[in-house]
Amino acid sequence: MPRFVVTLVVAALTVVLGGELATVGGQATSGEYRIGVLEPITGPLAFEGKRHMEGLEIVRDLINERGGVMGKKLVFSVADATDPTVAASEANRLITREGVKIITGTFSSRLCGAASEVAARHDVIYWESSCVDPRFNKRGLKHVYRTEIDATGFGWYNIEFIAKHLAPRLNLKPNQIKIAFLSEDSSYGQGVTESARQRAKAEFGMQEVMLEYYNWQTLNDMTPTILKMKQLNPDVVHHISFSNDGVLFWRQSKEQNFLFKALVHAGATGYGGSDFGKALGNDANGVFALLEPGPGFRLEALRPEGQQIEKAFRDAVQKKTGTYPFGAHQLAGSGLWLLKLVLDRAQSDDPEKFRAAVMSLDLPVGSMINGWGVKFSELGQNANDRVQHYMLQWQNGQLVTVWPEEFTTLRAKWIPLGAWDQRK
Amino acid sequence: MDPARRLGPAQIDVLAQLAVATVLLGGIYALISVGLTLIFGIMRVVNFAHGEFLMLGMYLAFWAFVVFTADPYFVVFVAIPLFFVVGLVVYGLVMRGVIHASHNVQIFTTVGLSTVLQNVALVAWSGDFRFVRPWHLSTVLRAGSTIFNLTQVVASLIAVALTLALVAFMKWTHAGRVMRATAQDREAATLMGIDTDRVYRLTFAIGIAAVGAAGVLVAPLYSVYPTAGLQFVLLSYVVVVLGGLGDMLGAMIGSLIVAAVEVAGSYFFGVAWKEIFYFILFILVLVFRPAGLFGQRGAETLGV
Amino acid sequence: MSGLLRARRGAVVVFGLAALTPLVVRDAYFLDSLVLILLWGALSAAWNVAGGYAGQVSIGHASFFGIGAYSAALMVTRFGRGPWLGLLVGVVLSIGAGLIIGVLSNRLKGPYFALSTIAFSQVLLIGVSRWRGFTAGAEGIPVPFRSGFATLGLGHTGWVYMALSVALVCYAVEVYLERSRVGYQLAGVREDEDAAEALGIHTRKLKVGAVALSAALTSICGSLWAQYVGFVDPTYVFSVDLSVRFALNAIIGGMGTALGPFLGSILITSLETYLRATFSNWDARFAGIYLVIYGTALILVVRFVPEGLAGIAARIRMRKAHA
């Protein structure tokens, strides 16, 4: 027994330690600068993780074509984060084995929460591009930054659009609008929905007629929910969807001839993903999704440096994937580009110098990819009004930019939506 | 007041449509569970990879649709023999060695199989959500004020046909009788000269053929991705247990009950709670009527 | 005492090495892996109390893990008390839940029992996700890190000893079940319930007790995990994946043996960690391969070494004794 146990323990130690020996000095290689990338590349979030990786790799190549960061070629150490335990463990690996001083990622709020905690304990910079949990940078962790707006930002923009753009075109005052909230129950869905509810009620006095959450993975039929909504007769449906649930809701609403005036979503999943258009073709017409910019986006509306990088990014994505950039590409990509801007300024990954560089950045809207600007708060949050978001609409198989109108050549149509067979 | 709770003449239409939704959803659940009724219900082999075979069926429908623009209704005829062979191969490679082992060993073997299949699909076809959109998906039939989705109607009808075919198979063919004999008393069957290994192999293959076909048929209704089958596993077990182990018609009714609980729960309490209702129902049935709502047959072999 | 040590040489080696490692190794990733090995090992040992010794194979032990994790996290964030109090509350709640599951186990066998435990954990998952006002719902709870023993804010070395302590507690419970009268009675219940009943053993009470004890230990580990990782969300802590993991280590290591769950955890955790790191760094598109290997390994072990690693060791020892 003891010999067997010793063999097993030694074998395990060798395996784990072996990794260390193999990668010692990874960061020291001259001419390269290594950062850690933490994304869910297996498991149920793999499809989004994959697009984030695409966006990151494309922007990494753009950065390297432009001289890299701090005069070095930017390279990645990638780690797979599928759940909080693994995210924390892999963050540990990136820091101690790969020797990274900066970690970026991570798509999901359950992952960024655990991983950033580890980074903070090692004095490593955590550069978040996509998780939206509002509490992420309010936990008193140092060196935690987020380039994207948080869930409250999404809710803010959606209600802004409904109150300022939809309401007048529907000839309704905001407080006359009957709004139904429907959402998948992940942390993203709950976060956005709750902040939208709050603003809708507190600031505009909209009438909430329904609130329903569901688990997108076990949702097999939307008919009962649609029948209920039909009787509640909302003007606007605020629906955060994740994948098939958006398709299911839309297809079955058509089957049941459920008529409402507009549907608004936020984010790159569900209605905001290319799959929705692929699944429904022209039947998708009319759905709104708050996102990064899509076709119709006016490059001229940006500042010169913003125009340049936005165009290069768009072309590179087109070349690699054959499509206009998806939200996931844009989130991860712009986050990485912003990291380069900071590193160029700081010329160091020392947390204090890095922080000083982040705080000193003050770029107006239109300065970089997605037409974003930069102004970080003391908490490390990029400002809502700099991280410009856009309302896109499905129009004949494409998700195009329709709002704010100064940024786009295209206009929102089908307001109100009208009969199902009239949306052409 | 919540109009969902107000009863009046206008509600009759809604109730009729809810009933239709129940029947159609129940049809889908029945279709997915048919194979499990055979494998678990009759042969008592635990298969936690049931959902992954469903997922493979969905991918078959997807690729056939993309590459050959083949309609799932045509593909299903290819799927049945194809998945029969898949079932034979998986049985030979994985299940045969554990077929006489305890249920626990079978549970964890098939958990491993499920992990493997999910990730093979992930590596081979990526985690993207895929969609199959045949013409009949957007076709609806109307009867009075109620609405039927054609794809769902066909899926339900095929579920009924498959169930009846299996009932007939078990009752009137030699192979079916041998299966029942083996399920009832394995040792006696061996003594009677029955090659039980062959029986198990055949049962497993037929069960996989059924779930593969189900995957093809439901592919248009849901999105196709590597973990698409996961949520149907537990649900299928609920259906099979509610119906009474090995009772094919009982499983059919079990599907309708699960669907009814789900539809009514979603409508009256909110879709968030729908699973809680059928899981609680499941636990209650297990505790108070372990042989299923109607059945009593066969429960003894699980020692209940 | 020395006799006991000699009889438990395997355990002395495993836990001894774990205790010595932090004195030599400073590498955070290595220590983190060690904490996880010990914690998953302790959880599997806790599972083993019900699954291995009492023969009640559950795939719903994440229920108790989740109860423990939420009790600790909520005690800190909602009530402003220390996690230790949360740990205690978790134990009480888990014993309650364990009694329910234990009563189920008196009516259900084999796959039926396993399925009912999954259903139980799913009910908790949905309940916690929906009760947003109290549990923060699906958004989960970030657990603040406050340095100190009372707040369980420890460094990596501290965590190794914390995980080692809980591992030793679980191991001690297992040893007790192997050696004591209760243990022999449990073995009787597991092997032949009717015969045990005929011998005057209170089989029902024993099974319920074993499940409740197993639940309490699982809950303790859950509370510690919450403080260690610092983020509790329902979809993870109540997941079937997690329940399977607890059972898996014990099965691979050897069900119903005291050291088995730890051997299983050493093998599985380090294999998983190693494969994940290797494949995701190689090419993100092929990251899934590590799970394919992992799953295949599981099938092979269950098929060819059903008695687990501890069983192999015993076999080798037997052969030596005969030689």
Total strands of chain B = 2
**What's the oligomerization state?**
heterotrimer
The first-level CATH class name of chain B: Mainly Alpha
Total helix count of chain C? 16
Mean pLDDT of chain C: 88
What structural category do the secondary elements of chain C indicate?
Answer: mainly alpha
Rounded to an integer in angstroms, the radius of gyration calculated over CA atoms of chain C is 20 Å
Largest sheet report of chain C: 2 strands, antiparallel
Q: How far apart, in Å, are the first and last alpha carbons of chain B? A: 47 Å
Structural class of chain B: mainly alpha
What do you see in this structure?
Chain A has two domains: 1-146 and 299-388, Response regulator (Rossmann fold), CATH 3.40.50.2300; 152-292 and 389-422, Rossmann fold, CATH 3.40.50.2300. Helices cover 43% and strands 16% of the residues of chain A. Chain A contains twelve helices and twelve strands. A seven-stranded mixed sheet of chain A has the order 7-6-8-9-10-11-12, with helices on one face. Chain A has a five-stranded parallel sheet with strand order 2-1-3-4-5, sandwiched between helices. By secondary structure, chain B is mainly α. Mean pLDDT of chain B is 87; it is low at 298-304. Chain B has helices at 9-42, 50-68, 72-95, 103-125, 150-172, 174-184, 186-191, 196-218, 230-243, 248-268, 274-288, and strands at residues 140-143, 146-149. In chain B, strands 1-2 form a two-stranded antiparallel ribbon. A two-stranded antiparallel sheet of chain C has the order 1-2. In chain C, helix 2 (9-24) runs antiparallel to helix 8, helix 3 (28-53) packs across helix 14 and helix 4 (62-77) runs antiparallel to helix 5. Chains A and C meet through helix 1, helix 2, strand 2, helix 3 and helix 4 of A and helix 2, helix 3, helix 6, strand 2 and helix 14 of C.
Features:
heterotrimer; A: 424 residues; alpha/beta; Rossmann fold; 2 domains; five-stranded parallel beta sheet; 12 helices; C: 323 residues; mainly alpha; two-stranded antiparallel ribbon; 16 helices; 79% helix
Secondary structure: elements and pairs:
The complex is a heterotrimer of chains A (424), B (304) and C (323).
Chain A: H1 2-23, E1 32-39, H2 46-65, E2 73-80, H3 84-96, E3 102-105, H4 109-121, E4 125-128, E5 144-146, H5 151-169, E6 178-184, H6 187-204, E7 207-214, H7 223-232, E8 236-240, H8 244-255, E9 262-266, H9 274-280, E10 288-291, H10 304-321, H11 327-346, H12 351-360, E11 390-395, E12 398-403
Parallel strand pairs in A: 1-2, 1-3, 3-4, 4-5, 6-7, 6-8, 8-9, 9-10
Antiparallel strand pairs in A: 10-11, 11-12
Helix pairs in contact in A: 2-10, 2-11, 3-4, 5-6, 11-12
Chain B: H1 9-42, H2 50-68, H3 72-95, H4 103-125, E1 140-143, E2 146-149, H5 150-172, H6 174-184, H7 186-191, H8 196-218, H9 230-243, H10 248-268, H11 274-288
Antiparallel strand pairs in B: 1-2
Chain C: H1 2-7, H2 9-24, H3 28-53, H4 62-77, H5 83-107, H6 110-130, H7 132-135, E1 141-142, H8 156-179, H9 181-191, H10 193-198, H11 203-229, E2 231-232, H12 234-237, H13 240-253, H14 260-282, H15 289-304, H16 308-322
Antiparallel strand pairs in C: 1-2
Helix pairs in contact in C: 2-8, 3-8, 3-11, 3-13, 3-14, 4-5, 4-11, 5-6, 5-11, 8-9, 8-11, 9-11, 13-14, 13-16, 14-15
